[in-house]
Structures are given as C-alpha cells and as structure tokens.
Design brief:
Blueprint lengths: L1 H14 L6 H18 L4 H29 L1 H4 L20 H26 L3 H14 L14 H22 L4 H6 L1 H14 L4 H7 L4 H5 L1 H24 L14 H14 L7 H36 L1
Length: 318
C-alpha cells in the first residue's frame, strides 16, 4: 500500500510539474522578506499560508493547462516534448485521464482560493481578494476558453504579471496590510525572468503551437526575432536591478545579483547558437530557469543582509 501511494504521489508531482514551483516560491519569499525589511514584522503563519495557497493555485494552473492543451490538440501535435516544454505528458501517455486532470485542477484551485479567502478575511480591505481573483483568472483561463490568454500574444506578459507583481505584492500585503508602488517596481525583475522562462520554453513547441493556433511570441515573431527579444529582456533584468538600486528602491546589497551574470552570458551564447534546434537549446532553457531562481534568491539575500546591517547599526547606536 505504501509503495502504491508513493508511486501515485510521484505521478501527481510530475503532473503538477512541481519542479517548476520555484516560480511561486521565489516571488512569495521576496515579497515577504521585503515586508520584513520595511516593517520589522514577519508573521510566520501568514507566510506559510500564503506560500501554500500560491503553490496550490500554481499546481491547479499547470493541470488546467495540460487539460486544455490536450482538448485543443496542442500537446498531441507536439512530437518533440522536452523537460521544459510540451506539458507533463500524463494524458498523452495514458497515465492519468483528462477528466481526472481537470478534476484535480479544480480541486487545487478551490483549496488555494479557500486559503486566499481566509487571508483576505484576516487582512481586510479585500486587497488579497482582488489580487487572488486576478491570479486565478490568469491561471485558469491561460489555456481555457473563452479567453485562452496563452493562445494570444500576451501569454508571456500574463505569466510575468502573475508570477511577478501579483505574487510579490500579495505576499507583501499579507505581512504589512500596505501596498506601496515601490513593491510593484521591485517585483519587475522576477516577473520578467518568469516571462523569459516561458519564452525560451516556447521555442521547442514552435511547430505544434503554430499548428494548434497558438500565437506565442515565437510564433508571431519567428525564432530569430524572438531570440533577440529574449536577449534584450534578459539584459533589461540587470539594468532594472541597477536602476532600482540607484534610486533607492532596492538595497545596495541587492547588487549581489550581478554575481549571476556568468549564467546569463551562458544562456545568451547557447541560445544564440542553437535557437533553431530543440535539444541543443536545452542548456539555455535550464540556465533561464536557474537564473530566475538564483536572482530571486540573491534579491532575498540582499534584503536580508541590508536589514541585518540596519539592525546592527541600531543596536550599536543604542
């Protein structure tokens, strides 16, 4: 029995693509640490509830995308899936039925939304409710009709907003009951990075996306121009961080994110040489995922180090 349950757990963890949950962990952690930096308060119970609720919504989103990409025929047309693209393949391999994928998706959305409603109740002013509704809408209707956001030309933008400003701002508000405009700006680097993860992962799916009617940036621009866009946005992440530090919106210690530059250079070199190849591009896919995680962690460390410096000066002065 234990072996069966372990096998089922492994299947469902793959179905919800749990390896990509760093896309949620990073913005929730960043918003929460920024809140502690600004207010001296950190409410652990709310932090863990926020993290759990966001992860449930993320899992529901991934399952919904699998289901609706199956219904549209997009994943079925994809004959070259990779670890970073083409969905979980649970439906295509006959491991989980489409109906069970949909039911599981709806269950996760309900569970995550329930946590969001509780946090909205304890925080007040319906800010969490509004942010949560937008997040659920973007997640479910990313591939679902009638909106099918990911099938238009704004899928990358929607992902960047959902896993950037929405999650960072929501996590910050849960801790502080305050939502300054600066937190929106601070969230931009991680938002751009998750959009880049989506963008680079669309290259292997170019033909199947085009055949199924998806108008991703890779389909609309073509691979060569889409790669120029990828490179430009990746450089803009570092420019944004330097800009935010220069104007006092990020602590100076957040410049440690520049330590990730070698990985960014690797992603640029590999993608420039192999943008029209599937498997040779995979190191660039992996590097982009790694950059999102690494830069996100370094931003959190930058906030924490700056807070430690502030506190040490305070106690010395006292």
């Amino acid at each position: 029995m234990a072996r069966y349950l372990a096998a089922q757990l492994k299947i469902w963890l793959k179905a919800i693509r749990s390896l990509f949950f760093t896309a949620t962990i990073i913005p929730v952690a960043l918003g929460s640490i920024a809140a502690w930096h600004d207010t001296d308060n950190f409410i652990w119970g709310r932090f863990w509830l926020t993290m759990l609720g966001a992860l449930l919504i993320h899992g529901g989103t991934n399952l919904a995308n699998d289901y609706f990409d199956h219904v549209s025929g997009c994943d079925g047309l994809n004959t070259n899936p990779t670890p970073f693209s083409g969905g979980s393949r649970m439906i295509q391999k006959g491991i989980i039925s489409p109906k069970n994928i949909l039911y599981a998706s709806l269950s996760l959305f309900i569970a995550g939304s329930s946590i969001g409603l509780y946090l909205n109740y304890v925080c007040g002013k319906n800010v969490v409710l509004i942010l949560g509704l937008v997040g659920v809408f973007l997640g479910f209707f990313y591939c679902a009709r009638p909106f099918r956001i990911g099938y238009g030309s704004f899928g990358e933008l929607a992902a960047g907003v959902g896993f950037g400003p929405l999650m960072v701002s929501g996590s910050y508000y849960v801790q502080t009951q305050n939502l300054p405009f600066s937190i929106f700006l601070i969230s931009m680097p991680v938002g751009i990075l998750i959009a880049l993860v989506l963008l680079i992962n669309e290259f292997p799916d170019h033909l199947s996306d085009k055949a199924s009617g998806k108008r991703t940036q890779v389909v609309v621009l073509g691979k060569e121009k889409a790669m120029i866009l990828y490179h430009s946005l990746l450089v803009s992440v570092y420019l944004a961080i330097v800009f935010l530090v220069a104007f006092g919106l990020l602590p100076v210690m957040c410049l440690i994110t520049l330590l990730s530059a070698p990985l960014a250079i690797k992603a640029i070199i590999v993608s420039r040489k192999n943008f029209d190849k599937i498997y040779e591009l995979l190191p660039a896919n992996a590097s982009t995922v790694g950059l999102h995680f690494l830069i996100g962690v370094l931003l959190c460390v930058g906030f924490a180090l700056d807070k430690v410096i502030i506190l040490s000066r305070y106690y010395k002065g006292g």
